[in-house]
Amino acid sequence: MSTLLEQLDQLEQDALATLHNASTSEALQAWHTHYFGSKRTKGALEAMLGLLSSLDKAERPAFGKRANEVKQRLLEAFEARKAQVKEAELAAELASGQLDVTLPGRPPTMGRLHPTTLTHRRIIAIFKRMGFEVYRSPEVETDEMNFGLLNMPEHHPARDMWDTFYTTRSGVILRTHTSPGQIRVMREWGENGTRPLRVILPGMVYRYEQVTARSESQFTQIEGLVIGRNITMADLKGVFAEFARHMFGSAGQIRFRGSYFPFTEPSVEIDVYLGTDTPRARMLTKGTGWLEISGAGMVHPTVLRNGGYDPEEWSGFAFGMGPERQAMRVHGINDIRYFWQNDLRFLEQF
Ligand code: PHE
Fold first, then answer.
1. Domains and CATH numbers, the chain
2. Given this model, what pLDDT does residue 2 score?
3. Among 98, 224, 247, 296, which lies 20 to 30 A Cα-Cα from 176?
């Protein structure tokens, strides 16, 4: 009898010790199965109770009572330990998923606008304030729009002013200037030659030229077109003086130099006077005081007619300028190839 009771004591001690060491839900479950059994297996405690029959009748009540105490004690200890482990596991789970808000953040990489885009936006904003609308015209053009309707029939020598990229489709080219947009906007927005126009046409143009520091095979232009009943050269001058004041902060002095374009008559090159007083003005004008900014002229009667306007009643001026050339001057960029090379070391400076 004493040995059996001693075994029971030992079982209790062992059980409590292993329970104390069980630190996970799995270990606890295994402990419970070991001592209290499962559907299929007999637990250690039950096994010991099975030995009851081997005791003297007189000893049985005492052993039974003790066995019940042990069972009670172990079950209580089990529940207490289970609660502890549950709590620890929850704490560990929370800690592992925790967000350390004191860690330094990863800076988002910010994109930036291309210097040409920036220049376009500035120029467009100035013209918008003067009531100009923006018209977008295609880069892939017909020969007819790019030359023919601009008063340069086939074999016209002036076509040589623009070295052209042809496509495999006959009569389809990459536009060499934004001027074909003049015809398109007159036809599309002119309401059969009855509506005055005040538009700018920005976009990419292409020239089949040797690429050098000074000339690229692609660059952008901003075309302007004003059509009305009494538009004169003075309007062209006034618009450019206003543009120069906003773009370059100049006093608005403008100079026309005679030039030639088949689609304007007369044709001019426009220079803005920036003076030589400041280092910036000297840099922009290469010391001459004058900055060349645009080709321009009064819209040729043939071009007006091709756009649907009666030249007896309507007149207009047009201009075409190169934003990259202006950006190069303003930012001191000495090689036009930087614009479309997409080298971030260049682009990130703007
Ligand atoms: N299209 C001309 C060029 O590319 C510029 C221009 C536009 C001149 C409008 C006069 C009027 O050289």
1. 2-96 (no CATH), 115-347 (3.30.930.10)
2. 56
3. 247
